[in-house]
Amino acid sequence: MAYNGDSDRSPAQQPPLPTAIKLLVAGGFGVGKTTFVAAVSEIEPLSTEETITTASIGTDDLTGVGDKVTTTVALDFGRITLDPQHILYLFGTPGQDRFWFMWNELSDGAFGAVVLADTRRLEDCFPALDFFERRGTQFIVAVNEFDTGYRYEPEEVRAALDLKPNIPIVCCDARDPRSATLVLVTLTKHLMSAAASSVR
Amino acid sequence: MSDFEHPLLDDDAGPLVRPYTVSNGRTAPTAKLDLLSLVRSTGQLRPSQLENEHAEALLLCREPISVAEVSAHLRLPAMVIKVLLSDLVDVGAVIAQAPDPAVDPTDQTVLEALLNGLQRRL
Ligand SMILES: Nc1nc2c(ncn2[C@@H]2O[C@H](COP(=O)(O)OP(=O)(O)O)[C@@H](O)[C@H]2O)c(=O)[nH]1
Ligand SMILES: [Mg+2]
User: Is the Cβ–Cβ distance between B78 and B68 less than 8 Å?
Assistant: First the structure.
């Protein structure tokens, strides 16, 4: 006897599963990615471990078998249920360079990204900018305003990062849910205008 | 999956679905799942008809939930969860969102749902 008893539903009769929307939060180590994800998430920010097997680099392969290295990457993510048919998942990208290979999987199917920048070390977000530009992933830059950081004008940041004029730059406090949510709103509006202009 | 015996859905027989663990030597899930694949139980199987992690995973699937969330809640690596969940798909206990067609990031309807959902939180 099936669990449902008389209301035995075939897969076709099930209501459709919601659509999952993936956004990324990238930037250098300590810039506030985990803080940002926690601020906007409706659940306690969660962490999942992804295990990846890669061929090790720089080992002499005399056996022909090839050395495999298994690396575990912890990913922070949060969830926002937008409506019954849409769930937003926000993933913090692993900051360390040695996890660059995770970025491919993470950016697959991502709608867009927030690149967090810290004005005390702007250069830390260069790898993220390079990566998203190369992948064609839409992004905006959000300057996380640490109390000790010098306040730059967005246009100064744009010049320092050599960003195209159409890429929004906003300031935020990654600890503040409203401020972090506003960053996501800016990203979404940027995605909408990018999508509209790519149709033409 | 060729080595799977279809479970007998008998009420009193106890757990009939054997756990397929990664330690069984299988490391690749049969269903194509990624971190953001959503799953939901079909109601065709009770958690009590399953063992251990399979039962725990099924309990989490009452509402639509992602592979990443199941992994976080059960504190098991995503790779293990993908195998567990694809076992549950194989026995008809859960349905998974087909990974194709992938969501189109330029779909204005989806982007509007994103914008509205975010603005409601301000
Ligand atoms: N003062 C201040 N501290 C912050 C802010 N955002 C993050 N932090 C702190 O900076 C540290 C690193 O943040 P974290 O989110 O872990 O950075 P991650 O490495 O990018 O994930 C933590 O101790 C945070 O509490 C901010 O906007 N202002
Ligand atoms: Mg972090």
Answer: yes
What residue numbers bound the domain in which A37 lies? 20-199
CATH number of the structural domain spanning residue A24: 3.40.50.300
Total number of domains in chain A: 1
Domain membership of residue A111 (yes or no) is: yes
Q: Which residues pair with A144 in a beta bridge?
A: A172
Window 71-90 of B, Cβ < 8 Å to A:
71-73, 77-79
ipTM: 0.85
What tens-digit pLDDT sequence spans chain B (122 residues)? 333 444 443 344 444 444 444 334 455 666 788 889 999 999 999 999 998 899 999 999 999 999 999 999 999 988 899 999 999 999 999 999 865 556 788 999 999 999 999 999 99
Could you tell me the CA-to-CA distances from A181 to A80, A146, A167, A187, B117 in Å, in that order?
11, 18, 18, 10, 10
CB contact under 8 A, A188 and B113: no
Q: Is A11 within a domain?
A: no
pTM: 0.84
